Amino acid sequence: MNERESRTIALTVAAAFFMETLDASIIATALPAIGATFGTTALGVSVSVTSYLVAMAVFVPAAGWCGERFGARNVFAWAVGIFTLASLLCGLAPSLWALIASRILQGASAAFMSPVGRFVVLRETPKERIIEAIGTITWPGLIAPVIGPALGGLIVSYVSWRWIFLLNVPLGVIGVWLVLRHIPKHPPAPRTRFDTLGFVLTALALAALVEGLARLGGLDNSALLPLALVGFGLLAAVGAVWHARRTDAPMLDLRAVSVPTYKLAIVTVGFVSRVAINASPFLLPLMFQIGFGYSPQQAGLMVLVYMAGNLLMKSATTPILRRFGFRRVLTINAALCAAMLFACGMLEPGTVDLMVYAVLIVAGMTRSMNFTSVSTLAFADLSAEQRIGGSALATMLQQVAMSMGVAFAAFALSASQTLRGVSSLGLVDFRYAWFAIGTLMVLAAAGTLRLDRNAGVAISNRP
Questions:
Q1: Best CATH choice for the domain 1-194 from the list 1.20.1250.20, 3.30.360.10, 3.30.70.2190, 1.10.490.10
Q2: pLDDT given at position 194
Q3: What is the average per-residue pLDDT within 195-223?
Q4: Which end of the chain is more exposed for a tag (fewer CB within 10 A), N or C?
């Protein structure tokens, strides 16, 4: 396959990822409007958000098996098609329960898009171009969560919340055509037994962890149920791992974890860094509104400055990785990322605007570099047999890290507020929350020192 064809496949998968990731974040701003349509509150509609996340968590474990059994191209095309149909049903939903059912269908189809789409890109991309390919499919996860709330606000203000979902329909139809047109067919793998027990244990673990962590991140004083869900999820996860290690063809494929670069990038250091960085889009708009007294529109514009840093770094990521290698880039970038998280905690209403913009742009740049380099390193040394299982496991842990990032930041805010003995959040609470996640990033930076100096050399083309 030539360079142009592999780039086209990566862009096709990236477009599908963007539609999926944007849909998960854009709905947040529309919750009050949706609640008004169905005669309930924004809190009452929030189940449409958690139902999507839980459905995605439940079905991610089956993505690897389905991709191998029925062919990655076929599964990816069906996933994009069903996601498009579910978007149409969401936009036309006559009741809240119809919307929730459609969101569950959306989440279930999204569960197959991420791991299978990543596997398609890895399989069809020459090893010397994997850095560029992973960078291409990483940008939706960087940009969509940042522009989603602002775009949702514009759509709700000037059109209708239903168009948040209806806009996916033409995009999805084009996406299915692109998948069938550009992604080559490969014969499916030999038939293997579906690991029912492994699927149930893994699905229960992910659903309980994602839902429990999402509830913990809600700044709710009632923590008993969320903690019970997290505890149950951890027990189910232990059971799933125990079962996977004793089964010939497990649903939870752990073979990739034996590769040092994958383990560091997905399970240990990379996981900690994702928890820290995923707290930023949660803290920034709240800090600017509550701590600085900005309007929602002003806060949204400040978050867009943060997104600009993400975009600025994209074109520089590949040359930097090729010039300096993964170990040096990850270590220095993690240290810079930690410094920017601490710097966000030092901002206050009297800070010069130019300084605020500089901090946000550099914070966005380090976030982009971290996500792309970690995601690329994870698959640098995997064999072809390890890639689809490794892709599914990476998607699972990224979902948990996203929930943990929000939950950790919310806990830090709540703890600071409680210790100060006040009834509402203030700027000082955000300062301590930024310091807490900055400390997490320092731990991640220290962990990168264990990385071999030649890690990822096979795909970075460094001598």
A1: 1.20.1250.20
A2: 86
A3: 78
A4: C
